[in-house]
Amino acid sequence: MALTYTSTRSRMSVTASQAVLQGLSRDGGLFVPTEIPAIDVSLDDLARMSYQEVAYEVMKLFLTDYTEEELKACIAGAYDSKFDTGEIAPVVKKDGVYYLELYHGATIAFKDMALSILPHLMTTAAKKNNIAGKIVILTATSGDTGKAAMAGFADVPGTEIIVFYPKDGVSNIQKLQMVTQAGDNTHVVAIHGNFDDAQSAVKKMFNDKALNEKIGAHGYQFSSANSINIGRLVPQVVYYVYAYTRLVRAGEIKSGDLINITVPTGNFGNILAAYYAKLMGLPVNKLICASNENKVLYDFFETGDYNKKRPFILTSSPSMDILISSNLERLIYRAAGEDPDRCAAFMKDLTEKGEYVITDDMRAKLTDFRGGFATEEENFAGIRKLYLNTGYVIDTHTGVANYVYRKYAEETGDTTPTIIASTASPYKFAPAVLGAIAPDEKEGKSDFEMIDLLSSKAGTEEPRAITTIRTAPVRHKREADVDAMQAEVLDILGIRE
Questions:
Q1: How far, in Å, are 162, 418, 464, 475 from residue 186 at the CA level?
Q2: What whole-number distance in Å separates Cα of residue 146 and Cα of residue 319?
Q3: Bridge pairing between strands 186-192 and 478-481
Q4: Torsion angle of alpha carbons 249, 253, 259, 261, nearest 10°?
Q5: Is-contact 274 287, C-beta < 8 A?
């Protein structure tokens, strides 16, 4: 039976391919499946499958208007030699914890896991829905999504991609990865503001009827590559199912045993995917939501009050420097009894008042989650300790999750086997990582000299993504104030105001 999608803010209904194409609902809400399908293959059988085969078994349940041939072609086109390991998402056991390495793709961050397949899903959806014009991918990034989206969509026929990033809110390597991106259809704009400013402005453009009519008259339509797109969320469910079955395959757990999953969290999409995997039947005990010093999510799970009215802190884990976690809306919708009017009211309060407070009955539905946060000092200390104990090097985002989980285990005595989502290569944040494991040796070194030092310390070769940007020319030099973002979009598309 075909699974349909509805908005978190109205009772509209669209197919999976239509939800992928639109990205954000016309009413400003996010698309959610009308039901969460159950895994229909045994975990033991899944344990014998490849990543690509597991991906098909999970994604076929959500993307029901894609044919088997179409979906398998999308999967084959996504998970191939662009990943530097044949396993796609290896699980590595260190110091009693399982690290799910999600950074072996083209841009060495977990966003590759979904953004490698999204262009295939979107272009297939365009054909299915007889879309003749160009799709304009409009994306705000805190550092990783933008590069991964551009790498996926570069020179894909029928698309343009425009990425906005906070000029002073990403690492130097993240910036270099974006501004050197090739592809005649790729466009990058540094904004004078933070990620939340960029994300809010992008959402505003999506919801601007006059703007959409203007670009439509020129043969364009907006779509999104941010994690608000259901085409990003569904592929992320896959790797949690895959990771569980790798533990079964390795004899670390038995089929049916409970696990915990810890995720470094900013926009809430990655941990929401883990929650969807649990709802599908994956045996998950706790979902541990790890925040950095921008701990709006930790405070929410502690109090039920989501309050963005606080200082925005720049940290060594910039992809988590977020105060408006867009994907949380999907969880709020579910906790509100899938009542779009209640959900819309909460989102209105967030926009107009800067906060919302959920009810006690809603909080009672969130017991699957446990929040935690790490200060910069705690994060660095955890990275250092893991390195000294094992020689294993993790990045600063994974470091947040590492610290939060170990503190949780110490406080609760919970010995449930735990997977930590390792969301980026340490090479992407070499200065910060070296600040944790070898602070005295990094002084006076350039970014690339620090990468060389990190390679020596970790005993691993730098990824292809780093080697490429050492000599790549800068291609993108646009900058804009937040209130000029729309004008930049029109200029890029060649449309006069």
A1: 6, 39, 21, 10
A2: 11
A3: parallel
A4: -40
A5: yes
Q: Measured between alpha carbons, how far is 271 from 124 in angstroms, rounded to an integer?
A: 27
In angstroms, rounded to a whole number, what is the distance separating the alpha carbons of residues 415 and 226?
A: 35
Burial of 493 (0-12, 13-18, 19+ CB in 10 A): middle
Q: Which of 435, 426, 442 has the alpha carbon at shortest distance from 392?
A: 426
| Residue 389 identity (one-letter amino acid) | N
Closest CA to 263 of 285, 281, 246, 287: 287
In contact, 17 and 231? CB cutoff 8 Å: no
405 neighbors 262 (Cβ within 8 angstroms): yes
**180 within 8 A of 467, measured Cβ to Cβ:** no
pLDDT tens by residue, 95-139: 999 999 999 999 999 999 999 999 999 999 999 999 888 999 999
In the prediction, which pLDDT does 59 show?
98
Closest among 210, 215, 158, 225 to 490, alpha carbons compared: 215
**CB-based contact 307:324 (threshold 8 Å):** no
The predicted-structure confidence for 378-422, as pLDDT tens digits, reads as follows: 999 999 999 999 999 999 999 999 999 999 999 999 999 999 999
Scan for tokens 């896991």, then name that residue.
Answer: 113
Whole-angstrom distance, CA of residue 356 vs CA of residue 351: 9
pLDDT at 158 over 80: yes
Chain mean pLDDT for the chain: 96
Amino acid 165 reads Y
Structure tokens at 364: 């009672």
Q: How many other CB atoms are found less than 10 A from the CB of residue 473?
A: 7
Please tell me the distance from the alpha carbon of residue 365 to that of residue 346, in angstroms, as a whole number.
16
| Bridge partners, 137 (sequence order) | 161, 223
Whether residue 436 is predicted with pLDDT greater than 90 in this model: the reply is yes
Residue at token pair 């292809």: 464
pLDDT tens track for 219-253:
999 998 888 899 999 999 999 999 999 999 999 99
Chain center to CA of 287:
16
List the beta strands (DSSP E) in 358-396.
369-373
Strands 134-140 and 159-166: parallel
pLDDT of 497 over the 80 cut: no
Report the predicted TM-score, pTM, of the whole model to 2 decimal places. 0.93
